[in-house]
Specification:
Belongs to the PIGH family. This is Phosphatidylinositol N-acetylglucosaminyltransferase subunit H conserved domain-containing protein. Pathway: Glycolipid biosynthesis; glycosylphosphatidylinositol-anchor biosynthesis. This protein is α+β, with helices and mostly antiparallel strands and about 190 residues long. The strands form 2 sheets. The protein has a 6-stranded antiparallel sheet with strand order 1-2-3-4-5-6, covered by helices on one side. β2 (about 25-30) and β3 (about 35-45) form a beta hairpin. The longest helix has 19 residues, at about 70-90. About 25% of the residues lie in helices and about 40% in strands. The protein has 2 domains: about 10-45 and about 90-180; about 50-85. About 15% of the residues are buried.
């Protein structure tokens, strides 16, 4: 049996940004000859608590000097919440698409908590597209898979957005979409002019 990802395929590394401006590294490990696509989106997350430590130190000095205790407690709680968010945040998402088998996504957390895994069987996949979502005053883009879902014997359509935790910029999603569009979705005849 041949391996799914041959060793002669060299991965392509590209650098993009997330919607928040942080740097994302996209590693493309696709084997087009075998109709297998694998994308790894990685975000370097750093715990930035300098301002909170400065505020905590300042409030500790105020507490000792003037016996003001409430700001010290609130700064301590903010620091604890920042550490919890850092420890449980997702920093790496892998998308693997194998034609006639299915689509597998896996999100890995930094330290704590289970990885987020989902498998979509190939026979339920209808199409893939880039979805535009407006939240507040921001426009977000998600690479979204349309699947056929059967609930209580009734067929319905379900949208499965990918990379929800990292939210890459549109250029990154367009790169992946161009690779996936030929593999996923209806086979359309090309119109020649």
């Amino acid at each position: 049996m041949l391996p799914i990802f041959p060793k002669d395929v060299s991965p392509t590394e590209l650098v993009f940004r997330s919607i928040n401006g942080s740097k994302l590294k996209l590693i493309d490990k696709s084997a087009k000859a075998r109709n297998v696509m694998k994308f790894v989106l990685h975000k370097s997350i750093h715990l930035n608590v300098n301002i909170t430590f400065l505020l905590l130190f300042t409030t500790a000095v105020l507490w000792k000097a003037f016996n003001i205790f409430i700001p010290f407690i609130s700064c301590t709680l903010v620091l604890i919440l920042q550490i919890i968010c850092f420890v449980t945040s997702v920093n790496k998402v892998t998308l693997t698409v194998v034609e006639f088998v299915g689509i597998y996504t896996e999100g890995q957390r930094i330290f704590y908590g289970p990885s987020l895994c989902e498998f979509i069987p190939w026979d339920t996949v209808i199409d893939v597209f880039i979805n535009e979502v407006i939240t507040g005053q921001k426009v977000l883009y998600y690479l979204t898979i349309i699947i056929r879902d059967s609930v209580n014997g009734k067929d319905s359509i379900k949208l499965v957005p990918l990379f929800q935790n990292l939210i890459p910029e549109r250029k990154c999603l367009e790169y992946m979409y161009e690779k996936l569009a030929g593999l996923i979705g209806p086979k359309r005849k090309k119109i020649q002019l």
